[in-house]
């Protein structure tokens, strides 16, 4: 019998054999194409919980053509790392990093939600009850000004 998928909420750094049934809600590439590039993504599980995932340059060649936004996958064998950078994409205290043994298999999982928005109450923002290191919203940069 196949093992049931883990929940993103249960990721606590204590085990590395995590199996997730997920949807990639956001996927972007950082770096210079054909030089140093990595994929970063936000994935969600059936409960709508999200976590940040990184596929570094050495693993990206294997997976770049297979990873697509809004598709569903079963993924396992990640490296679990503290999500303690200067800026965080998700509020989960851990992030996942692809390794040489990470497995990604596209799967038709219709019950997985699409993006789940978690809006902050405006009064909490005014009084400063928010996480300043958590990136939110859309950011754009005009390089031709």
From TrEMBL:
Name of one Pfam family that matches: DUF223
Source species, domain of life: Eukaryota
Residues of the Replication protein A 70 kDa DNA-binding subunit B/D first OB fold domain: 7-106
Protein name: Replication protein A 70 kDa DNA-binding subunit B/D first OB fold domain-containing protein
């Amino acid at each position: 019998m196949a093992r049931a998928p883990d929940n993103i909420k249960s990721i606590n750094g204590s085990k590395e054999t995590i199996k997730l049934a997920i949807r990639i809600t956001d996927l972007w590439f950082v770096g210079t194409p054909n030089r140093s590039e990595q994929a970063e993504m936000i994935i969600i599980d059936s409960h709508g919980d999200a976590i940040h995932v990184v596929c570094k340059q050495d693993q990206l060649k294997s997976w770049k053509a297979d990873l697509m936004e809004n598709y569903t996958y079963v993924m396992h064998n990640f490296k679990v790392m503290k999500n303690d950078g200067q800026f965080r994409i998700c509020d989960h205290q851990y992030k996942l990093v692809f390794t040489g043994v990470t497995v990604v298999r596209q799967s038709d999982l219709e019950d997985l939600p699409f993006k789940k928005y978690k809006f902050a109450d405006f009064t909490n923002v005014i009084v400063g009850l928010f996480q300043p290191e958590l990136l939110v919203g859309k950011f754009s940069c005009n390089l031709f000004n």
